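User: Can you fold this complex?
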Amino acid sequence: MAINDAVKQMEQELITRTNKAEFFRLADGSLLKKYLPNQNPVEKLLQDHRSLRFLEDKLGELVHEGWVYRTVRLLDIKVDQRTMRLEFVPGDVLSNVCKSKMKEAEFRCGIWLALYHNKVLGGLPQGLIYWDFNVHNVIVDFERRTVVAIDPGMSWGRTGYAYQDLVRHMHSALVTLVVKRKSSFTALVSFLKGYAVATQTAPHLWSYYKGLRREIRRQFYQYSRKSYAKLVAYPFVLAMTFPFYFGFVPGYLWLKAIQRS
Ligand SMILES: Nc1ncnc2c1ncn2[C@@H]1O[C@H](COP(=O)(O)OP(=O)(O)O)[C@@H](O)[C@H]1O
Ligand SMILES: [Mg+2]
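Assistant: Here's the predicted assembly.
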C-alpha cells in the first residue's frame, strides 16, 4: 500500500453508514459523506447539494427564544469521488436523545419545522416542503441550544402540503421512538405545541386532510416495498394511528390557533 493511501486511511474514521452513504470523520473535524455506488450516487449527491445550498441561503440561522435553528453547512463537493464534505454537527440525533430530554427535543423540532414553513412556504399551506424531517435527520444540541436538520428529502419541482412534513415526522417518531419506549405520546404533543407556537400558517383543514392522504399513500408504498410482513402489518399500524392523525392533530392545531388569535 502506498504511503499516501495509509496516511489517507488514518485521516478517515468511518463513523456510520446508511443504505445511501458512508460517513467518515476527517482529521480536520469535518465529515465526509461518500455516496454508495449502487444508488444513482451522482444524481443523489447533486440533489442533496442543491437542497443544502438552497436551505443555507433561504434559512441562514434563525433564532427563536434563545435557540438557533438551521441546516447543516456544506463545505465542498467532489462529484467524481461521489463525496460531499459537511461540518460535523455536535449533539444527538433525535432518535438518540435520552428519554428525559425527548419532550423538550420534540418541542424544538416542532419549532424548527414551523420556521422552515414560515420562510420557505411564506405562510401558505402548500409549496416546497422539507419531505424528510424524520427522527434520524435532525440533531439537537442542548449545550449550544441548536437544532440542525441534516438531510432534506426535497426534490426540485415536487411540491406538497406543509402538513405532510408534520405527519411524516410524527409517524417516524411513533414507529421508531414510541415503539422502542424512548418517547411518549406527550413528546409528540410537545412537537405539535412547538409547531403551533412558531407557525405563521393559518390552519387549513382541507390541506391537512389532503396532506394526510398523500402521506398515508406514501407510507403504504414504503411498507409494501420493505417486505410482505410489513405490508400485512400496515393496516394495523394505520388503524392504531388513524384517530391520532385524523382527529387529534388537526383538533390540537386548530385549538392552539384559536387560543393565539
Ligand atoms: N453533519 C453531520 N454531523 C454529525 N452527524 C451526521 C452528519 N450528517 C450525518 N450524520 C450522521 O449520519 C446519519 C445518516 O445521515 P443522513 O445524511 O441522514 O444519511 P442518509 O442520506 O443516508 O439518510 C445521521 O443520522 C447522523 O447520525
Ligand atoms: Mg437520512
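The chain has two domains: 3-60+73-86, 92-260. The mean pLDDT is 91.
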